[in-house]
Amino acid sequence: MPMDWIWGLIGGLLIGAGGAVLLLGNGRVMGASGILGGLVDRSGWGNAAERAAFVIGVIATPLLMIQIFGLQADTHLTSNWFVVIAAGLLVGTGTRIANGCTSGHGVCGISRFSLRGIVATVFYILAGGLTLVLFRHILGMI
Amino acid sequence: MRVLVALLSGSLFGAGLLLSGMTDTTKVQGWLDVFGAWDPTLAFVMGGAILPMLVAWRLTTKGAPMTGGTFPDLPRPELDHRLITGSVLFGMGWGLAGLCPGPAMASLTFGGIGGLIFVLSMLAGMSFAPKLGSQLDRLAAAT
User: Which domain holds residue B19?
Assistant: First the structure.
């Protein structure tokens, strides 16, 4: 297991480097839900090309790495499509209403000691933990 | 130039999500499941990601972004009902599936049909959000 922690730290440093590049390069906060959501609800069409380039980087780079380095990757996502759809809808609406997700409120918010980022992170981790415990250990659905 | 910066940022983000294991829902749910085989990896990812950002925020106190313009105007630290309600809804979905927006995008090419359904549902949710947000505002104003 400790090897997973080391990869977690290395991957985390890369995630943070991505955030630093966007902040110092373009003066933007790296929030995955905000960048994508602005394309979906048209609020971010003023800089759509930048947003699209970010999304292309996020989607294409893991594929390139898997191909080049022969990495194994699996999401182990539940095959219960009802759960998948409900979860997707909740993540999409929730992150846009809260104006941030794990990257925007979590990584970028906590690192500047933002009260909003810290409070959001506490609430989504608590809600996530309670939901998982309820559906896995009490209802036995996932 | 701004487009290239965004592409580089997204590429680093995507690479980090894959290497850190955050595209694997068992690792995310392992972190959230304190009654199961608890997996602390997510804390290492968060810690690792916060370090470069601490430095980056320090550097924004003077100067300007490389491509011009100004550093972002950050929202005043107000805790409103949107922040709380939205984060709770997001957390519920995150716990159910083990995916948040970044990893959902990063795993699109290897996440199979389920991953695609998740992303399409998430995009649908994002398109409903402005309307639902205004409804919540009215509800909050009435109570």
Answer: 2-142
B93/A123 CB distance under 8 A: no
Cα gap A55→B16, rounded to integer Å? 14
Q: Which of B42, B125, B130 sits opposite A88 (nearest CB)?
A: B125
Q: What ranges do the domains of chain A cover?
A: 76-142
- Alpha-carbon distance of B107 to B104, in angstroms, equals 5
CB contact under 8 A, B114 and A79: yes
pLDDT tens-digit profile of A97-123? 999 999 999 999 999 999 999 999 999
Residue A126 CA from chain centroid, whole number? 17
**Whole-number Å distance between alpha carbons of B72 and B62:** 12
ipTM comes to: 0.97
Using the Cβ of A28 and the Cβ atoms of chain B, whether some distance falls under 8 Å is answered with: yes
For B94-126, what is each residue's pLDDT tens digit? Answer: 999 999 999 999 999 999 999 999 999 999 999
Say which of B18, B93, B115 has its CB closest to residue A65. B18
Q: How many domains does chain B have?
A: 1
The tokens for A47 are: 């800089």
Is A103's Cβ below 8 Å from some Cβ in B? yes
